[in-house]
Design a protein that fits this description.
This protein is an alpha+beta fold and about 230 residues long. It contains eight helices and seven strands, in the order αααααββββααβββα. Helix content is about 40%, strand content about 20%. A hairpin with a 2-residue loop joins β6 and β7. The protein starts with a helix and ends with a helix.
């Protein structure tokens, strides 16, 4: 009985007197609610082993589509090195919720780090454990000197952009970042890979994705709008 109460409390918050009365009258039903509720929560977090065999399913029911990936890069290439630099990892997490999203059914890893001066975030998206189709990194440094913001942006983004993807030209990327620190938006292509830089107020963004991803996303929303 205490187990049932504790699990339902995790799912529903503080239990009312009516809830407790229901548990006493229908203990088996309550146990099933607690069990399946916990399974629903736990299912959002998956293991690396599970992802190893998870291939994209082209199926109208779950709306998953095969997405072209950044060649030569795996999730471990990012999160291991960032963890060594003091970042905290969350993931892999299955993306659920809104069906009107091209990322639904896929997975993300998020790595974050706080310092006294800045906040850093690197989130990357995948359909399995062996590939990445998009990286979104950002840095924000509130009320900090301009020179510090520029240095931290340059150091963080050049590190993210040094991913070992095919045809990467890190020197070209460094110059591009250096020359666009306050650009509203700027793009750079390395073969099949597209880098997108955006400066918004006190936050800078760097996205790395397969060059076809934007078309994939545009097609998704076009089909979605045509379905109404």
């Amino acid at each position: 009985m205490e187990f049932i109460k504790s699990k339902l409390k995790e799912l529903l918050g503080d239990l009312s007197s009516k809830s407790i009365s229901f548990i006493k009258r229908k203990p088996l039903t309550s146990l099933l609610i607690a069990f399946f509720g916990c399974c629903a929560i736990a299912s959002q977090f998956v293991s690396e082993e599970t992802l190893q065999s998870n291939a994209p399913v082209i199926n109208a029911q779950n709306q998953r589509r095969a997405i072209a990936t950044i060649p030569g890069v795996k999730p471990v290439d990012i999160y291991k090195s960032l963890e060594e630099r003091g970042f905290t990892k969350e993931g892999p997490v299955k993306i659920s919720g809104d069906a009107q999203s091209p990322n639904k059914g896929n997975y993300y890893w998020k790595l974050i780090k706080y310092t006294d001066e800045c906040f850093y975030n690197a989130t990357f998206y995948s359909q399995d454990a062996n590939s990445i189709y998009k990286v979104h990194s950002l840095i924000t440094c509130a009320k900090q000197p301009k020179a510090l913001f520029e240095k931290e942006t340059f150091d963080f983004f050049t590190y993210i952009a040094s991913l070992p993807f095919t045809e990467n030209n890190i020197e070209k990327t460094k110059n591009w970042i250096r020359n666009n620190l306050y650009a509203e938006e700027s793009n750079l292509n390395h073969g099949e890979v597209k880098l997108i830089y955006k400066h918004v107020a006190i936050t800078n963004h760097l996205m790395i994705e397969h060059s076809s991803y934007q078309k994939f996303e545009d097609d998704f929303y076009t089909k979605l709008s045509n379905s109404y």
